[in-house]
Design goal:
mainly alpha; 3-stranded antiparallel sheet; 5 strands; 9 helices
Amino acid sequence: MAQGKPIVPRNKENPVGQVARIRRSSAAIRRQLSAARKLLKAKISSWPFQIIETNAKRYEYQISLGELSSVADEILIAMIGESSHELVVSEAMAAYENGTAQSAVNIGNISDDYTREITDILSGAPYQRRVSLISARVFEEMRGFDAQAAKELSRVLRNAVEVGDNPLSIVGKLSNQFGISQGRGEKIARTEITGALRRARMDEAEDARQRQGIRLAMKHFSANSSTTRQSHAARHGLLFSVQAVREWYAQDANGINCKCSQVEVLVDESGKEIGAGKKKARQIN
């Protein structure tokens, strides 16, 4: 029996929320890349060079091939020393807990049959197993980011040295690459944090269906934003099974930079939303 209406997102431009967590993660990634930037600036300024005048001025740096090849490892060490891994993992785990709590409160609001307490959920083995998978996934993503960033930065540096760019030009090229790496890192953090919240809601909805027999569907709330993809906007207000939502996010990069959210709603035997009224009633797609 329904007790109340589903609790829907208040922010229409960013239904999934998690802004503060994403902001903190982005700051950690910037600090991490700043450590690598300082290392490279110190390296470049310490390298002696000879200017060769031919058809165009060329800088020949007096460094060995071995020293140049070792830069990638040194960048990686510098980034690990100021690692953003722990913070991003922590924020993703907090988002998963937040999503679980949101789901528990919402399902409890719409169904008398839902009797689970959030403290019991968080201490249970199923939750602990799921959150450990989130932690491992995010850690591996961020470790891959470190390795890729170090590889790309060392490639830009090596190419610039080999063609004889002047020190200021090398710094400029590295700055561009730092911007690219920062954007990639922030995209990973943003995607993993919002994805953790959505997965938590789907996991709890699925658990309520399996353990307590509560018929639920996920109602899609698209972000009313200029950056919202048309394929995402077209799903607004529609109902989907948990499995359908999982499959949709697993394809076509739908989870990347997505601000959409899904909210649990009660459905009848035919898959129509209960309590939505005749005009608003939707059926599971």
